[in-house]
Every structure is written in C-alpha cells, then in structure tokens.
Amino acid sequence: MKIHKLTKRSIAPYGRIIDASGVKYKPGDNGFGVIFKERSAGWRVAYLVVRERRITRLENHPNTAETFEPVRGAAVMALAANPEPEKFKLFLLDKPIIVKKGVWHNVAARSKNCEIKICEGIKVIEKHHRLTNPIKA
User: Beta strand 127-136 with 75-80: parallel, antiparallel or unpaired?
Assistant: First the structure.
C-alpha cells in the first residue's frame, strides 16, 4: 500500500501540520502564533509508545481534535474521512499534526519502537472500526 508524504494539501481533508506558518515575527524578536483554537472542558497530554506494526482497527473521536507529535522512531498513520473508514490513506508520520474531530485514525510502528506525544480533549468519546484488511507498516 502506498504511504503518502505529509503536506499541507495531502493532510487537509483530515487535519493540518503543526508548523510555523501562522507565526508572526517582529524584527529581532521571537515569533508567536496560535495555530489551533477550540473551546473545551480541558485538555490532556499523553505519551504513546507504539510497537505494533499492523493496524487492525481505526478509531474516531467525534468530540475532540487530537495532535500526534512524533518524538522518536518511525511510524505510519492511517487517516480516513467520516463516514468511510475503509477509504483510508497511509501517511509517514514525520511531522506533528492535528487530526480533526471525527476523522478515523490509528498508527503503526515502522521502527522497533515509536514514541508519539498526543494532546486531546480531557474526555474522549471513542468509536472503533475493525478493518476488513489489516494494514502492515
């Protein structure tokens, strides 16, 4: 299966890349820019260690966006628009991204271990879809 490169255009149906494109600078100063805003009852920060090299199911969080920020190792990410989880695309997760609410997703390791920082709403509603054909990273 083809693994797509993360670009602003390729990720647009599912979310966005976390980068400095929205940062404003004054000459000689640091830059700052809010790239994502959402009202919530709170957020949580998690650390995911991925060893599984297959994706057998996708999950969907209809109530919260979620970041996936690679820290160590290599991973692929399956992303699919709602309501068609079987029409997923695979991406090399080599940049931090924000996944929109309601997007089907999951990750698999390409290296022995992959570590990913995740930020999401404090209360996460999870829906699951078992894939007809599991994905091997």
Answer: unpaired
Q: pTM of the prediction?
A: 0.93
- Taking 70 as the pLDDT cut, the residues of the chain under it are none
If DSSP codes are grouped into helix, strand and coil, which group holds residue 62? coil
Tell which residue, 48, 66, 65, has the closest CA to residue 108.
Answer: 48
CB atoms within 10 A of CB 105: 23
Range of the domain at 129: 3-136
CB of 91 within 8 A of CB of 1?
A: no
Distances (CA, A) of 46 to 5, 93, 120: 25, 17, 8
Domain at 93, CATH number: 2.60.120.480
